[in-house]
Design brief:
alpha+beta, eight-stranded mixed beta sheet
């Protein structure tokens, strides 16, 4: 499945690029996601938890990041599996930053997602697309708040000091992304549409 998204951030491109390079910060902005371990060479162990209707899945796997500063683009690849349900997922995400104004940056995202196992039944049509919409909206809200906090609290001297004496942050326990209400709402809509077709309305 291919998903494309675009959103704008009210910050200069270099500030957005720098913030996007902090994988721990980015993971904290994604509902259900967390970074567990730094494996080196821009590879990380991560987790992503989601609840869709009656089924909950906690994917554990590996994430790799390749950043291309000359093009303001990056490619994030990942794969993981949920031991309980047997569901598996792999895919890639490419994002590109475009400076529109002095203090505005457009972010274009293209995701390729492959699902297998029990969760794959939700990988067709509107459910996964709506989940992507919700994740994007939540990410933008959280990410803008972190960029704003960083811009107001940090001085250049503090930034240099942190880079020279960088301490890996403790892993954050991620809360599961719960889209149960979405699942039941869409199920009711599909049942209602089915009966409308039967009645010819």
């Amino acid at each position: 499945m291919k998903i494309t998204k675009q959103f704008s951030l009210a910050y200069p491109r270099d500030a957005v690029w720098k913030a996007m390079g902090d994988v721990y910060q980015v993971a904290e902005c994604l509902p259900g996601a967390s970074i567990v371990e730094d494996l080196g060479d821009n590879r990380y162990k991560g987790k992503f938890s989601v609840k869709v209707g009656p089924m909950a899945a906690a994917f554990a796997g590996e994430v790799g990041i390749e950043r291309k500063p000359e093009d303001w683009t990056a490619v994030v690849t990942g794969k993981g599996a949920d031991a309980r349900s047997g569901s598996r997922a792999n895919g890639s995400m490419t994002y590109a930053l475009t400076a529109r104004e002095a203090a505005q940056t457009d972010v274009d995202v293209v995701c390729e997602i492959n699902l297998a196992g029990a969760l794959a039944q939700f990988g067709k049509g509107a459910v996964i697309q709506e989940i992507a919409n919700r994740i994007t909206a939540e990410f933008v809200r959280n990410f803008e708040a972190k960029v704003a906090a960083s811009a107001t609290r940090e001085t250049p001297q503090l930034q240099i000091h942190r880079q020279e004496n960088e301490v890996q942050p403790a892993p954050r326990a991620a809360e599961s992304l719960d889209v149960g209400n979405l699942f039941w709402t869409m199920l009711k809509e599909r049942i209602a549409a089915f009966f409308r077709r039967l009645s010819g309305n």
